[in-house]
Amino acid sequence: MIKVKTFNSNLQIISIEISGHAKSDEYGKDLVCAAVSTVITGSCNALDQLVPDSCVIDLKAGLTKIKIIDNSEKVQTILNTMLVQLKTVEQKYPDYIALSTIDMEE
To answer: CB-side exposure of 68: number of CA atoms within 13 Å?
Structure first.
């Protein structure tokens, strides 16, 4: 299962961690993994190109970490767009992806 954990502080996303594999089909035919990978990669590219130096992105197979270091409305919009897309995948394939939000104390 793919787990998406969003860490918030003061109603702002401060980091996101995506881990695991969907295993909804054999390797190369896993539509859930393909969808999630596409959303994550596109979002990370948007962060890198549209708001450079705003985040530390660690993108690996089976584990992606995004830590916000210079928060802005544009960063929040990109991250919230990514979460909407991932929630859409979760609604269609709830056995293979789960999203959660953790509120951090400031």
So the answer is: 21
